[in-house]
Structure formats: C-alpha cells, structure tokens
Structures
1.
Amino acid sequence: VDPAARLGSAQIDVVAQLAVSAILLGGIYALIAIGLTLIFGIMRVVNFAHGEFLMLGMYLAFFAFTLWSIDPWVMLPLALVIFFGVGLLVYALVMRGVIHASHNVQIFTTVGLSTALQNIALVLWSGDYQLFRPWHASVVLRLGNTAFNLSQVVAFGVAVLLTAGLFAFMKFAHTGRVMRATAQDRDAATLMGIDTDRVYRLTFAIGIACVGTAGVLVSPLYAAYPQAGLQFVTLAYVVVVLGGLGDMAGALAGSLIVAAVEVVGSYVFGTAWKEVLYFILFIGVLVFRPAGLFGQRGAESLGV
Amino acid sequence: MTTTDRVAAALFAVAALIPVVVHDSFILDSVILILLWGALSSAWNVAGGYAGQVSLGHAAFFGIGAYAAALASARYAHSPWLGLVVGVALSLVAGSAIGFLSNRLKGPYFALSTIAFAEVLKIVASRWRGFTSGSEGVPVPFRPGFWTLGLTHVQWVYLALAVAVLYYLVQVYLERSRVGYQLAGVRETRTPPRRSASPPGGARCRR
C-alpha cells in the first residue's frame, strides 16, 4: 500500500476494515486455540498434533464437497460428531498411554503423532494444494465502507457459538464442573470420586472436535494440504501462551490480540512479514511473562 | 571403554568397511545419511537428552549451517569449508542468544519457544529473497575436488563417518565432564539450578 493512500479521509474506513477483519479472524483462531488450551488445562499435555486435526477437518470438507457436493456448512454438525469420535479413538490408542508420563515423553508422542498424520495425508492425498469454492466463498457483504466475505462471517459466527457453548458447558453442566475440578487439582478430584481417565478422554475428544470443526469452517478460505495445520497451530501456540496455557478466557483475548497483530501487521509491513511479528510477540511473552499476559494458575508445576 | 563405546566402535568400523565391499551408490547414500542423522541426533541429544530440554527448533541451526556453506560456494565462490566455519560461528551466536532467552523455560514452554525461534529463522530464510533466493533454494554447483566439497560417494562416507565419530567423542567427553554433570543437573531439577550450565554451547549448535 502506498503510504500516501493511508492518509486523509479514507483513514477511518481503513481502521474500521482492519478492526472487522481482526475480529472475524480472531473468532476462528479462538475455536482452534480453545481446544488446545482445554487439553492443556486439564490433561497438562501440549497437543503438538493439534494442527493436524485441523488439516483433517479441511480435507473432510474438501472431499465432502468434491465427491458428494456437500456444502461445508452442512458438514459442520457431522464434523463435530466425527471429530469427537476421532478424539476418543486417538485418546484410546495414543494419549492414554502417556497421560501420566513425563512432559518430554508427551512432547515426543504428540510431535510423533503430528508427523505421522502429516505423512499419512501426504501418502493418501498427495502434497497438492486443494482448494474449493462453495457459493458462499464468493459472496461479499458490505457494512458501511467495510467489506467481508460470507464464508468468513459464518465461520466467525459458528466459531463464536461453539466457543460460547463450550464455556457454558464448562460453567454450568455437571460434567463441565467435573472437568474444571480435575484441572484445578488432579489428586483431590480423584479423591472426590472423579474418574479422571474419563475426564481426560472427554477433554481430548472435545478439544479435537473443536479444532476439527474449525478445519471445516476455514476450508472455503484456505487451501488444504498435508502441512496446512502448521500455519494455524503455530498461531494457536502464540494465542494460548499469550492467554496463559490452560486459560480459556485468556485464549479468547489472545486470539483477538494475535488476529489484530496479524491484520495490522500485514497492512503496515505487507503479508510476507506478518508471521515474524507475532512470533516476536510470542518470544517476548515467553521470555518476559511465560505464565501469560494475565498470569496463570498451575504454572508453577511447570517450573515457569 | 564401556560396552556402549565398544558397540559404537564396532558400528563405526562396519561403516568404514562398507565402501570397500559395496559400490552400489544407493547403499552408500544410505550409509552417508545414517551417519549424518546419527551425528545430528547426538548434537540434539546434548540439549534434549543430557539437559532434558526438548528442542523442536534444532532444524534452525542445521539450516544456518547449510545456508552458510551453500551461499559461501554458490554466491561468493568461496570454499564451502569456509562456509562451515562461518556457519558454526553463526550457529554459536544464534544458539547462545536463543539459549539465553529460552533456557529459563522448561518442558512444554521450552519446546514452544524453540518452535517460535525456528519459525522466525525459517520465515527470514524464505522471505529474504535477495540473499537466500527464498523458497527456490540455493543450487550449489558441483565442482570436483576436496576443497569445493565435490566428493565421490566413497569420500562422502568417510567424511560423514569422521563427523559422526567426532560428535560421538564430544558426547563421551561431555558425559564425563563438569559440563555434562551440570547438564544432568538441569535435567533432574525442576527449577534450573544455576544458569551457568546452559546454554550448552558448541556441540549443540554444531552443524
């Protein structure tokens, strides 16, 4: 953008557009990050394979659309169920064995899972970029002088609904309270008769359902390829560390901050360098406030 | 000499004999890669194994070394060996800086921070088109000779073997030295003792 064009009367419009874009993007990032932070908060495991489930969600939407012409919006409820099942399966096959192991073993396990899933996708579906355009990806909505695309708006709306639903579930449902109790103190929860293994299984399944559905939501906007998850998951790391690992409300705030940095950064410096900006932010937070911007409960158990 | 040392010596001897017996270039290539990955793993092991700091960003140091050697020969027509020296120096600087910033973190936080540093370097390497040619990469012209690293398969096997043996010896030394015990101290303590023990400097960063 020509610097001169940024001055003058158009400036207000630009700021409005940037704000709207940041909020839309932030909602989607929130849904990705919320699963990661939930899994960490309760299971104390950083799921380094989180992005790969997003990638699987994108492929699910892609194949549903190209093979059976099912719109990604129709796939959403189905994806929730499918990825809940995938979460249960992966928990039973992989995570249950390492839930009580050391952090390093857990890091190796989830990094290994990530590499395995990426390469399975590469073998099955090749490394080509797969992009499809349902009708709503080409519809532009206008509000004042800001413009945005319908897929993006709906993705944002659904992401917000799901996130709000998850918050309500954690706050009011009995199971949600049980999960929060486990997050606060594993041992005490066990002593109170909580089946922590069941809680972990459920937590992992919910986390994977969130990120898998997020994959379906972003599929009209981004191409699917075996490493598609990486760009989002590194961003989700930034989000959860900003908000404090395991802190769900913090993840929401973190999503908006990261989205704002990304949107403003790409406007000012060009899209090529936007990632550097949020990594610098990330490194700054890790170094100066590793427990997150708002502090974090339970951080001391990690020696932070 | 421990049993592990004897097994390692035997394996190194086997690797040294393979080029004498086998001339198939696929197998020789595999041997070169096995030795290189072995050397790489032992470099990683200094931070990941001894100090228990699982780094997911070591690829960045490998990349710095690779770019230094490739650019030295392709862009400046110097010997890649010179690039190797520059690469080690740059990795040391980068490793010390990254280690200084991230070694105060432990467990998942440390792993996350190393990903962040590696990503930053990856982005710089792929966006700094004028210098690194971006994602197209730097094609290194093949010029036969030791000084230009235009080696035959057999020579490569011995070079890789030398690197692997060197790294193994560094490990053996580290394991029994003061630094090695300090690293184990870092691993076994929940809160890092004195930070003098880290960053683990040279061996960790060496390409």
Note: Confidence is low (pLDDT under 50) at residues 298-304 of chain A.
2.
Amino acid sequence: MTVREMGRLLRSGKASSVELVDDALAAIKERDRFNTFITLTPEAAKQAAIDCDRELAAGMDRGPFHGIPIAYKDLFYTRGVKTTGGSLILRDFVPEYDATVVDKFRVGGAVSLGKLNLHELAYGATSKNPHYGFVLNPHNPEHIAGGSSGGSGAAIAAGFVPVTLGSDTGGSIRTPASYCGVAGFKPTYGRVSRYGVMPLSFSLDHVGPLGATVEDCALAMAELAGPDARDAASSRVPVPDFYQRPPARLDKIRFGIPKNFYSDHVDGEVSRSVLDAVRQIERLGGTVSEVQLPDMVQINAAARFILWGEASSVYAAYTDSSQFGSDVWQLIQQGTFASAIDYVTAQRLRTLFRRQFDEVWREVDALITPATPVTAPRVDQDEVDIDGYRENARIASTRFTRAVNFLGEPALSLPCGRASNGLPIGMQIIAPPFTDAWLLRVGQTVERVVTTPYSRGSVTGNKGY
Amino acid sequence: MPDPDFERETNRVLVEAARVELTEAARNLTSDIEPASIFSVAPHQLLEDEEQE
C-alpha cells in the first residue's frame, strides 16, 4: 500500500495506526528473510501508533504521514535507539539526539518501526553486509537489493512499509530503488538536512526518501525539505509546494536523451525498457531530443577522488582492519593514496563541470537515462557481464548515478519494467538544481504510463483490508 | 590470508589509474577556476549567486 492508501484507511476508520503497525511488524516477523532490519523497535512503534490514533480521534491530523509506519536506514541518529551504520565500530552507539529528518518525520506523525540494514558505513553499492547479513532482493533473494540503502529498498519491495529514508553519496538511494523496483529520490544538494546523519563524504552526501510510488517520495519531501541552521550546506532557497498535483500531460517539456556515456555498456533489456518509457513520454506530449553531455567519465573520476579523500578523512582514526569488512577497509585505504592536490583538483573540476552542466539545462528541462546499466546482480556475482564487457558489480551499479552527486542535481529513480529474469528495471530522470518538486510531479506523470504492476511496491503484499 | 603488500600495491595502482582521468580533465582548468565550496553554500548556488551579482 502507498501512503495515500493507508491514510484513507485511517481517516475512514477502516484501519487504525495500531493495526497498520501490528500488520507491518507481523509481516516482518513472518516474511523477512531479506535481512532488511538491523534493529526493530516494536514497543516504541506501538506506543506511537496509539498516540496517533488518539490524536486522530480527537480531530488532530498531522498530515499525510499521520500514523503511517516507516523506517530509517541505520545511519540516521535516533535518540535512545542503537545506530550502527551497519558497522562493528559503531555497534553499540546510541545517539543522544535525533537527526533533523527523524525529528521532522516524527512531528509529521510518522511511526518508525526501526532501523534498516545497509552496506557497511554506506560505503558500497551491494549491501552485502558481513556484520548484519546480506540484504537480499525481495523479487528474487538470490540477487542483491543494491545499496548502500539496501534495507530501505527491500523493506518497501517486500511490502513492509510504504516509505523509508535513505542516503545517497554516489547512488545509494537510486541503485537499490532500481534493483528493488521502487521509487527513490535524491534531492538537490542542500535541500534536505544532513544533521544527525553519519557522514561518508561531506560534499557528496544527500538525504532522501524511497517510496512505493513517486507520489510517496513527493509526500515525504514535503515533510523533509527545508533549511537547517545545524547543517552548514543547507540551502536558503525557498521550499516549493510538493503537494501540487502532477500534470496530465507533458506538453512543452523538453526531455534530453544523452548522446554519450549513458548508452555505453547497457544491458539490452534495460535499454529497451528505457526507450519504451521515452516513447510513452513522447505520446504524452513531451519533446525528446538527443543532447551531448560533458565528459561523464571524467566527472565520475573526479567524484571518486572527492569520495576517497573525504571518506578516508572520516575514518582516519581507525587502524584495526579486523573491525571492517574487507571491501570497505580497502576503499578507506585507497583514499590514503589520493593526494591533497588530487582532492583540490577534483573540487575545481566540480566548478568547471557545474558550469558545463548549466549549459545542458539551456537545451533541455530533464534528462532520461537508465538508473543502472543492469538489473540486480546475483549475490555471488562480484562482476557483471554486459554483452562481453566485464565490470565490477559495485562500479557498474553506480556508473549512472555517481556524477549527479558531484553536480548536486535532483534525480529520481523509478521502475519502468522488468527483465526476462523477473527483476525490475529502473530509469532515472535528472533535472536542474532546485526543481525537486517539479521533477517529482513529472515523475508521477511518467510513472502512470511506464510502471508495471509487478515492480510497483509490494511483492507479496500486506493485509488487504 | 590476504597479503597486505599485495593489497597495498593494488590500492595504489587503482588510484593511479583513476588519476589518469583526473589529470586529463585538469587540462581544461584555468587559474581562475576555484574549488567548489562544500560548506555554507551548495556548489550550484555559487553560480546562482554570481549571476545575481
């Protein structure tokens, strides 16, 4: 179910928040063989649901998330609740305060069920977490859920909750959304507060929602967006109306299909699904043209140096490799070989490529790309083979998402079909900075014509009511 | 058991390979291009502020 569908049940008296929470907890207990959660907080959730029901009965309605069960990636600070970052080094860490976004969701009436599994320290795209279990794909548990917000994607795909919160440093919201067949939104840099979120890379980290639908993401953004004096990168740009209805058609909207980079080494079924989506966009009146992008390989390389420098700085004090998964430890070590010159050069290139991308936005209003070049790799697969082109699964999973973190643009991943192996296929829509609300409206219109029922939300479903 | 020397050398080579792309991209940098500021303003806001000025 979506947030809106649950809200209707609550406001019509057909279900209570307590029932929604109990059903979700029961579903997790019965069916969670995907390792989606690290910590469940059933008692706190039930008490919050009781309070929500009492408020609603008294005529106090906090908005779309009033009484709705949600969950947080386990790197958002939650006061009094263990926050591990999916790591051993923080296995006993209990924050004394809530992240700004956790606070905002609570004020909006959302009921947290607990903390979701992730790639260790959010430093990876597979969520094969050696400490808390591999996050498996609800569409086929022999495949990964993607990452780093793997639990956030899988919990929605499994039908446990309609919305989760994730973070995205190189694609960590959009990749699991693509692999799990749900919607995932990385907002413009600065649009959503990072205060109380474990950092990985200060200038690449973004906070955003994953949802059963694009509308769920829009409703979540209405709760989350806004300035925060406690986040130095928080934006002063006024917050737009995320509740505005999506357009029926896409007339006069200029969609760009990249000539370069985004069609290189893409699985054939993924290409066809995205092209089918483009045809649907044209049928709705959208104008589609090819557009030349800046050198995305160079952008990805520069982004990698920023990630290496900033992440290795965050974990510089840790010297015991036995406390880390081997992949994460190697990435931290790689950062020690990146020089100060590399880092500053990469940040200067950011200025240059930012200017080049602003030229792209004079030609088109949005870009359409695959979210990932492949569907979810198998759990035992370290490399993917794309028509003979072999690539590390982690690198492939973030190839089409990483640059957008470097640039700061908002980007939406939404399902646009499924492959013959039964796994969802994801497309990505990228738009200019601070067009977040517009992008989510366009995304809802596109979603109506491209999303297949199978890849939309629940695989096995909650109680039907 | 992983060989620390081998891992160290692998990591060094990986970073060196990425540096080739970075160096190529840096040929387009001119001395007036400063690093994007990561605090107080988002990268794209720098341009917006410049345009407003």
Note: Residues 4-26 of chain B form the longest helix (23 residues).
